[in-house]
């Protein structure tokens, strides 16, 4: 089993203090603070790192599934938006939205959507955490171009919009947002 590590150091009070987040690999170190986490202050925050991890995992899972189906992936770009809200339990991740665009030659919009949905089940899960925060998206179409899926966790949903079926060079450009 692979074990990854990161660390955080904090100095001072909650609202006036600040800290540093450091990835174990050393490729990223960033400042964080109350304003960077709960307001729009400069610096990073734990939720931004969760978003980066989620986007990276989804892009890799989708690449693997597309490749296994014989589709050559030119490029995949995923943006994850982590929503942090206040609940009675305290600060809570209430939703994670994924927006993905991919250049994949010769794939239909329907096949791309099907394989993107299949990718949801390939993402890592939290074992022994009481409930899963991610994936196993299920839902019904709102229209022919939009889907809103809800996970088994009532607080998190994934929104996907499919569009731009063809590029000018004749290849398919499917966008899952």
From TrEMBL:
Gene Ontology MF annotations: peroxidase activity
Region (Disordered): 117-177
One GO term of the biological process aspect: response to oxidative stress
Lineage: superkingdom: Bacteria
Protein name listed in UniProt: Osmotically inducible, stress-inducible membrane protein (Modular protein)
Source organism: Mesorhizobium plurifarium
